[in-house]
Amino acid sequence: MKFSSAIAFLALTVQDASAFAPASSIAPSTRATTPLFVAADLERPLAEETASNGEAAEEMDLKSLRRDPTPHAKPVSFATKCASLYSSKPGAERALAPPVYFGSTFLLDDAGHGARLHEKREAPYTDDDGFVYSRWGSPTNEAAALQIAALEGVDNDNDPRGLGSSLLFNSGMSSITASLMAVLRAGDHAIFPYTVYGGTHEFVSDFAQHWGVEVTFVDAAGKDGPANYKAAFRENTRVVYTETPANPTMRLTDLAGVAGVVDEFYGKADNVVGMHPTERKRPYVMVDGTFASPYHQKVLDIEGIDVSIHSATKFLSGHSDVLAGAVTSRSEPFLHGVAKVQKLISAPLNPMDSFLLARGLRTLDVRMQRHGENAIKVARMLEEHPLVQSVFYPGLDSHPDRELADGIFRSGRDDDMEDDDDEAPPQTYGGMISFIVAGEGEEALRRARNVCENLRVVNLAVSLGGVESLCEHPASMTHTMIPREQRVAGGLHDGLIRLSIGLERAKDLVHDLKNSLDMCDDEGCDTGF
């Protein structure tokens, strides 16, 4: 054997020794390239599963053990899903952390196996028949996708683990654009809120409208939001989109109300299996819930909500070291449509970032609770400061949509586990705050910039959801692509500052922000210590 051939052979053998075992020794359900990801079975010890067909447990090969993928007799909590969701197949050598599969392509059993996989190329990836090419999905990508599907509360009708219900993208923006591209065509109409992430606004204003899609912007916030959406409905409306909490104003959308007026006008959704996603008459109701995360808000539990979108770069991964996006749905036509777009534009999440996302999800529960506990302390200080004109935080009684807040922010609570009140975490309202400094126009803009620049513990940077606290000025940074008139109409004033509250000691954050504000007066701000 030539040296180069021997090296290739050895690498393949180390990667998957079972690929060269006799066919009779490998059960079809234990494909080495395909990990199984299910919640850890808390109801019975694994030892009970070590005997099959009368064989004694000690006579069985340990590598043949696997966990039962059927649902648990008792539901497990959100916190337990975060910490203990992953369990591996034998091919992953029973690793407690999902292995990183860097391979771009995968071995096929035979030509027929390859044909089956290619026939499914427009479907969301699942692990029932293996993988073919990393642009179409990989085991590491699927590990994180299954975690998110479980945390979103989505169970696939054909698989209790929610296989194929979540798709992971290489950024939050790619998850948004792919979702819209999957269902919108020239001549269609879509409705968006005035207050929306700048990148989303830019896409629908510049690209979608150039492709012949009509776009209407409405005030989506508060009790009047559903009526404002309804007033914009047309026969050709295909997407009803919202962000809640809104970026960066923290206004809340009445999701049940919006879904209700959509049903009233268009009727219930007709998610016929095999139907093209553009054939549905009822608009797709899409929700970007990045600011709340599934810890607080499971939007797919609300009847009539079709699609949940997250920038997984933010709270889901939680460490400011990953670009990722997630799309979750129960609609089979939509999932097929967005999966096709994902594969064609090469937007899946790569294996390493999938691994980092899966790692971050394990601490989502504890991180989100700390974010919220810190944020309410910061928000209360800001509300009392004389140079702060307004504070927008859902946990404050002064928030304009306070009546909606308790119904949205669930703080890790599960509807089917309400009997465990003694273990329920304290109610929190997320880690995002926005506030407006005193002044108008250029004066407010200059003062807001100075407040951001004078901070020493809180970092001046865009993005959000990491362990470190961040401060940014939307009118100068993340929302500059939105015309000023529309920004102001949506509540995004020149003096508005957005905070992402991290995991530091709350008193350090309070002191830092107070000190920066104290350096300002009616004439302006000092620019140094």
TrEMBL record:
Signal peptide limits = 1-19
Q: Name one GO biological process term.
A: transsulfuration
Q: In which pathway does it act?
A: Amino-acid biosynthesis; L-cysteine biosynthesis; L-cysteine from L-homocysteine and L-serine: step 2/2
Q: Which cofactor does it need?
A: pyridoxal 5'-phosphate
Keywords of this entry: Amino-acid biosynthesis, Cysteine biosynthesis, Pyridoxal phosphate, Signal
Compositionally skewed regions (Basic and acidic residues) per UniProt = 60-71
Coiled-coil stretches are none
Q: Which family does it belong to?
A: Belongs to the trans-sulfuration enzymes family.
- What is the protein's name according to its record? cystathionine gamma-lyase
Native species = Seminavis robusta
